[in-house]
Amino acid sequence: MKKQNPLFAYILIGIGVFFLLRELKLPIITDFYSWQTLLIIIGLAFLIHSYRSRSYEHIFPGVLILGIGIHLHGLQHYPFWIDHWGIYLLIIGLAFLIRYFKTKTGLLNSLIFLVVGGLLIYSQQFNHYFYWIYDLFSLIEKFWPLILIILGFILLKKGK
């Protein structure tokens, strides 16, 4: 008989606890009765499964889903929360970094995402130093279809 994957069981348990607490209407946790909490639960289920089974391929998606859930929850409930798309780069960098601690792969990816995300978040405060970033992104936004076409031709040529 094939061994069952407990990841689905962790997700079901987490969602069941979520809806049970929602039905009980505990006043302490009313801020967590949202769809963002479901993302947090799914991310935690991935992480619990990864660490308990000692197969660390689910660390990256676990941290990614958990981080996005926490970020979206923070945007919804806390007025001081930073609302910038660079946060998503920081979450990706953090996911690579946490995975690196267990698998020893992805450190360079982590550092790149963390540095670029941090620079983009704080680039508005240092606008006079990073004016070229805005020019670069406006150029990329204008010609991104051309970049896709060139990448497609490169992949076609590489495949032959």
How would you portray this structure in words?
The chain is mostly helical. The chain has helices spanning 7-24, 35-53, 59-77, 86-103, 107-122, 131-159. The longest helix has 29 residues, at 131-159. The chain is globular.
> What is the percentage of strand-forming residues?
under 5%
Judging from the principal axes of the Cα atoms, what is the shape? Answer: globular
Q: How big is the Rg? A: 20 Å
* Low-confidence residue ranges: none
In angstroms, what separates the terminal alpha carbons?
Answer: 44 Å
Give a short synopsis of this structure:
The protein has 160 residues and is mainly α. Helices cover 74% and strands 0% of the residues.
Write the layout of secondary structure elements.
Layout: H1 7-24, H2 35-53, H3 59-77, H4 86-103, H5 107-122, H6 131-159
Helix pairs in contact: 1-2, 2-3, 3-4, 4-5
